Amino acid sequence: MIKIASTISINKYAKILFLYFLILYVYRINSHTLLISTFNQPIKCPDTDYTFWLSHLLQFPDYIITHYWLCWTIDIGVVLLIIGCILFNKSRYIFSILLFIIFFIQRITIESYSCSHTKSISCLFIALLPFCFKKEKNIELMIEFGRYFLIYILLISAYHKYHYGALLNFNNFSNVLIHQHVDLATLNLTHISYRIASYLIKNPCIATFSFYTLFITQVSFIVGILTKRFDRILFILLIGFAIATYLIMRIYNFDITVLGLTLLYFSNSKNKV
Amino acid sequence: MDKLKNLYLIRLFKENKIVFCFVLLFIFFQQYFYLKDNSTFPWFVWSMYSHEEYYPEMAKQTELFINGKRFDISSIPIWQEATVMHTFEKYIQIKKNNYIDPMKSIVIKRISNLSSFSQNYISSQIENKKTAVIRYPVWILSYLEKYVYKDKIKTIEFKEVKYNYRDNIFTKSDSSQTLLKIIA
């Protein structure tokens, strides 16, 4: 049997991943995306999501959001658990399981009470999952699962661009940008996102070219199903995609790049199948 | 044959049957929710910006005014912006609906086969009640004061403003409507 052994040790990979996770969490703290900031918000928003429904049926988001010190404890608990995952190699799986549970409780409560369901948050959980296992073999298999999940997300996104017609409508992307930036167009014309968007709106050919580039970037992940040889290139494309969508669309896609680290893990494999 | 043996799912099956079942279950639910067109965490399908978008003749947006001056919502982090705007949208949606949560129809549709006891319990946990919704203006005032404006606020106003769009320029139309005004 062919063994897929990475030259990066699992410990080193875990440290990189949790450090990156911590950096993104600091960004969340800076954005006040915490329970403590959402404390006592009275309107819940489970939408049609069954996981949110189940959570509200168990009543934990409703209980947490109305208890100040519990909000504090969970917010700080997440930071301490991430640090625990970075520092303690041997007991990392215990810290990871706790982090998985506490972070899940925190996100469900915040997202329900801030009425903002960020889909890409799933990527953080899939990226965390491998470290909830103790055996190295299981960890590696789950990292690989994360890698395939990432490829699936990007490919299905590319497919939808074709299926729902965005790809075939020539002026589509410049129209998307007009709708996306009404607030900036009426208030903050000097904002970097609006300056880029404005240029693309005025030049629909370049806008369409950018959209096709995005589509090709997503489609290129199909290579990842066949081989791991180009994982490093795919990782660079993913980072480029996250930065570009943040600058042009003001959409935060950095949670997906955490899962993108799985590409770096296998790009160092001795045997890239 | 060697290539087949090296497929991820086959390797997974050989290494760990429990994890294999977990992954299969995950794939099953991913496909199930995809076919149902339902986004349920942690399964998700990306289809944003995949639909055809048409050139707008006009645009409508909710604007926030603090102490009588329009607040630059793009100056705060995007998640904070989402918290302010999305919670307000939900509030106004329920308020306009006579304080009946629009989720009610979805809840009824989903749970119509259950016993009346279960129906009552589920709807009481999923839908927002009027007593909770009317507390929102006090919360948003304190949130904006503490985390967004970071100074004393005398008035907050959410307005629905319409714009006409022509030659890459948005011009304000005459009609704008105050959706909520809070005086501290």
Describe what you observe in this structure:
- The complex is a heterodimer of chains A (273) and B (184).
- By secondary structure, chain A is an all-alpha fold.
- Chain A is 71% helix and 0% strand.
- Chain A contains 15 helices and no strands.
- In chain A, helix 8 (136-163) runs antiparallel to helix 12 and helix 9 (172-180) runs antiparallel to helix 11.
- The mean pLDDT of chain A is 92.
- Chain B has helices spanning 2-5, 8-15, 17-35, 78-96, 103-111, 116-126, 130-133, 136-148; strands at 58-66, 69-70, 155-166, 169-183.
- The model of chain B has no long low-confidence stretch (mean pLDDT 91).
- Chain B has a 4-stranded antiparallel β-sheet with strand order 2-1-3-4.
- Chain B is α+β, with helices and mostly antiparallel strands and 184 residues long.
- In chain B, helix 2 crosses helix 3 and helix 5 packs antiparallel against helix 6.
- At the A-B interface, helix 3, helix 7, helix 8, helix 9 and helix 10 of A face helix 2, helix 3, strand 1, helix 4 and helix 6 of B.
What is the subunit organization of this protein? heterodimer
Strand order of the largest sheet of chain B: 2-1-3-4
The percentage of residues in β strands of chain A lies in under 5%
Structural class of chain B: alpha+beta
Report the uncertain regions of chain A.
Answer: none
Derived structural class of chain A: mainly alpha
User: Distance between termini of chain A?
Assistant: 12 Å
Which stretches of chain B are poorly predicted, pLDDT < 50 over at least 5 residues? none
